[in-house]
Amino acid sequence: MKLAEGHKVQPGLMASRPRRVRREPHDLTDRELAGRVYRLARCASSRVDPDAWFPVTWDVAKARDQAAHAIAVCARCPVRPDCLELSLRHALGIGSHGVWGGLVEEERRAIRRAWLAGTSVTEFLQEQPARLRRDQQMALHRGHPRRRCGCGPSCG
Question: With 50 as the cut, is the pLDDT of residue 107 above it?
Answer without folding.
Answer: yes
